[in-house]
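ARCHIVE CARD
Drawer: 12
Card no.: 0347
Subject: one protein chain, sequence and derived structure
Cross-reference: see card 0346
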Amino acid sequence: MASVLTPVGKLSFPSLFTARPPMDGKGDPRYEATLIITPDFQKTQAFKNLQQAVVECAKGKFGTKWKSIKMPFKKGSEVTWNGPDDDDLIIKAWSKQKPGLQHKKGGVPVPLEDETDIYPGAWVRLDVTPFAYDNSGNKGVSFALNNVNKIQDGSRIDGRKSAAEAFADGETEEDELLLEKLRAEEGMEELETEHAEVTEDEVDELLLNS
């Protein structure tokens, strides 16, 4: 099955730099990306292409019974975690091999090498390959993850703040007064150490060397 590009969507639950075990604990560690596709992007040609690729994959494996299998699209109203709205659609893609990662700098696509540059809430597009599965009666279509292209930054949806945001209001006037006192005390200790009395052993050593 040929690969296909997804529409642009919001990234969630990324495991793109380090492979992690599946959430159910079964199977080998893998790289993953969950994509939240908003209603506007569900109207794009890219989304229609994605749907068509899934249908072709399902028909190729299951023939006329393809409509009864599990499809890889989930409604936002069907999940309990924060991020998607009810009318969003969600897909998940994974791979045992690390996906290619890129973004643009100065309008030029370059490899994305800093893990902090890609996070839950960033707007991305995925390069995926639909594949059909039939495991002990569990039939459906899923996506293999090939590459990830970060389109632009977005509001984080995991609630995590940057260090700058977290500590923006951290130091109060009270803290500063106490810290200033501490610095003064430490300065006095260093001064006292520098001018400490010479010990008897040091005196003996000086006499021997004189």
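Annotation on reverse: The first strand starts at residue 4 and ends at 5. The longest helix spans residues 173-194.
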